[in-house]
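Recap from last week: sequence in, structure out.
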Amino acid sequence: MRQSIRNIAILFLAILVITGCKKGDFSANSQVILFQYDHALEGQHRGFIIDSEGNVFTYNNPEEWNFPDKDFEISQRQADENIGKCEFSGKKIPGDELMKYAKYIEYIASSKVTAPRNKGDDTGTIQFICYQFSENSNLYKGHLIKIEGDYSRENLNFHSKKVISWIREIGNGVSFE
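Predicted structure tokens:
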């Protein structure tokens, strides 16, 4: 019983923090997608999405996937379609842990990203992205945390390395099969 009350209190606090910390017209009220790990290599496309409830959804070569545009923007309808093509991994991130990393999105969103560097690794492309949702435009604005692979880029915000490490840890515990 105590644990349930504690979890409800944490969730309520998390909602207050998210809705109180966004700038501009970005809102967590309608936001579904918070983070995405995406790996593309030689016709293979897989990854996972972390939603605002802490659910981890995986995808592996989904048909008719909606990719964000060059500015990392994707409509709410497209994001919903993508979630519909995913499988629940069975993993759910605890609310306090999710809140810890979700609060970094604002900082990452306002930071610069390095210019592309050619690595020539032939490993495809791995992208770490976080999202903010605008109710005014019904768009998710993606913010690059890091790209690895043939080319590399990274967000210069101090919190980026923490978020990348956390996303990698989550990825170690999910199956894409």
